[in-house]
User: Fold this.
Amino acid sequence: MDNNRHIDAAERIKSSLGAADTAIILGSGLGGLSARLENAASLSYSEIPGFPVSTAPGHAGRIYCGFIGTKAVYCLSGRFHYYEGYSPDQVVFAVRALHCAGVKTLIVTNAAGGINTSYNAGEFMLISDHINFLPNPLVGRNNESFGPRFPDMTYAYDPLLRKTAKSVAENLGIKLHEGVYIAVPGPSYETPAEIRAFRTLGADAVGMSTVPEVIAANHCGMRVLGISLITNMAAGVLERRLTGEEVIEAGKNAASLFERLMTNIIERINE
Assistant:
């Protein structure tokens, strides 16, 4: 795997926006956090060499760099999904470019369907582990400059970052579940039978993203924190149909709480 493309993208990001060692990828409907950055500058993904284009609803396709408190942060408003027709390598292109730009801590967020029946729409889940039904982005020739051929995933979601997130949520009075995220290809929503099977496997929430990014970030030696917004209950949990519009609407409704939670977590990282 040639990483010159990722280096070129990293140089464009740093030369235009400056440096940061923390980055956050914003999920569907959660892009409003970028407006909370102070002294922010931004680039369209189309201006960055090698970057794919976000086509999913609720993904603006811009990268911002600004400050939360005294910490410089890259904020990606938009990610790339397998269901958009992108290859696994393209899905994680931004993560590898961020690694080349010097990012050490990656926060991934997403909109997810609640499988655990104790969850409610509008609540948050701290990702403790995952189950992957998406193609693994590490398949193919390994690039040793990113990481080893067989990276360990025992602590894919950094225990200290999770501890920080739980402490912040408790102090703010924000309900934060902790559970297992299962990633599926999409774009069709899951069937009730699939949700029952996923629950048996130990999954608490389901979505169509995030895990490839987490695998690539761990491969590159990044610390990772993952947080899901439960935008709806998964198929069959409630007796009604699912729509993409309710996912975006739930993101808007939870925006204020999400932004409070994330800004406080970022301020606490590496204190």
Observations:
- The CA atoms of residues 15 and 168 lie 33 Å apart.
- The beta strands are 22-26, 38-44, 62-68, 71-77, 105-114, 124-132, 176-183, 205-207, 223-233.
